[in-house]
Amino acid sequence: MDPALFEEWMMITLVTILIGFMGFIVWDLAKKSKAGKFGTFILFFVLGLGVLAFIIKSVVVGYIEGV
Questions:
Q1: Cα–Cα distance for residue pair 50/53, rounded to 1 Å
Q2: N or C: which end of the chain has fewer CB within 10 A?
Q3: Which residue pairs, CB below 8 angstroms and at least 24 apart, start in 33-36?
Q4: What is the three-state SS of 28-56?
Q5: How far apart are CA 12 and CA 18, in angstroms?
Q6: Burial 23-47 (b: 16+ CB within 10 A, else e)
Q7: Can you give the pTM of this predicted structure?
Q8: pLDDT in tens, 14-60
Q9: Which contacts (CB < 8 Å, 24+ apart) does range 17-26 have?
């Protein structure tokens, strides 16, 4: 297997696992702090913006590299 392909697969897999783990942490934080529905929404909205920024960065880099 080509090392570049392996790195790409691991990047996608491990970042997905990391995002899922961060979602669990945010959910647990909202539950323990009794943030309510609106507070929980805000926490997940901010986490979603971070994930969206990562996806946009990947798309832009792919576009610039011509992939």
A1: 5
A2: N
A3: none
A4: HHHHHCCCHHHHHHHHHHHHHHHHHHHHH
A5: 10
A6: eeebeeebeeeeeeeeebeebeeeb
A7: 0.73
A8: 989 998 999 999 999 999 999 999 999 999 999 899 889 988 998 99
A9: 19/51, 22/47, 23/47
pLDDT at 1 over 90: no
Residue position matching structure tokens 């990047």:
11
Contact 43, 35 (CB under 8 A): yes
Amino acid at 52: L
Q: Is the pLDDT of residue 2 over 90?
A: no
Residue pair 30/43 in contact (Cβ under 8 Å)? The answer is: yes
